[in-house]
Design goal:
The chain is mainly beta. Helices cover 8% and strands 40% of the residues. It has a four-stranded mixed sheet, with no helix packed on it. The longest helix is centred in the N-terminal third of the chain and has 12 residues. The model has no long low-confidence stretch (mean pLDDT 80). This is Hsp20/alpha crystallin family protein. It comes from Streptomyces goshikiensis. Belongs to the small heat shock protein (HSP20) family. InterPro entries: A-crystallin/Hsp20_dom, HSP20-like_chaperone, Small_HSP.
């Protein structure tokens, strides 16, 4: 038998269940994420512990990235008696508006240790580049000056 050290945690869980904050397909719970730039990639990492890769759905429509996942209860036989259940179950979802400067055609997704990591390359057109300055000489010849 497990001993509870925080009596208020159980009350918080019950309030979450009664208020409907457990995720459903019509009202999914939000999953935590981190987003950062690493070199020429924009990286988004979502926490999805206990979710199988088959239960994760990633969509991009125009610039809207949508990640949905579902964590179901583990299959148990008749001899199992649940003593404590605190891990959230249900549907989780997150939508992120992506900038036009990202190449949504080349998104890479990896899932390891309960973390879904998306790497989105920065589009070539958005990377810094040098612009040549044209100059007209007295004879009408153009010279290229590097800027």
């Amino acid at each position: 038998m497990l001993m509870r050290t925080d009596p208020f945690r159980e009350m918080d869980r019950i309030v979450q269940q009664l208020s409907g904050t457990s995720g459903t397909w019509s009202k999914p719970s939000v999953m935590p994420m981190d987003a950062y730039r690493e070199g020429d990639d924009y990286v988004i990492a979502f926490d999805l512990p206990g979710v199988t890769p088959e239960a994760i759905d990633i969509d991009v429509e125009r610039n809207m990235l949508t990640v949905k996942a579902e964590r179901r209860p583990a299959a148990k036989n008749d001899t199992v008696q649940m003593e404590l259940s605190e891990r959230p179950l249900g549907v989780f979802s997150r939508q992120v508006m992506l900038a036009d400067t990202l190449d949504t055609e080349r998104i890479q997704a990896d899932y390891d240790a309960g973390v879904l990591t998306l790497r989105i390359p920065i589009a070539e057109r958005a990377k810094p580049r040098k612009i040549s300055i044209g100059s007209t000489g007295s004879a009408g010849d153009r010279k290229q000056i590097s800027g």
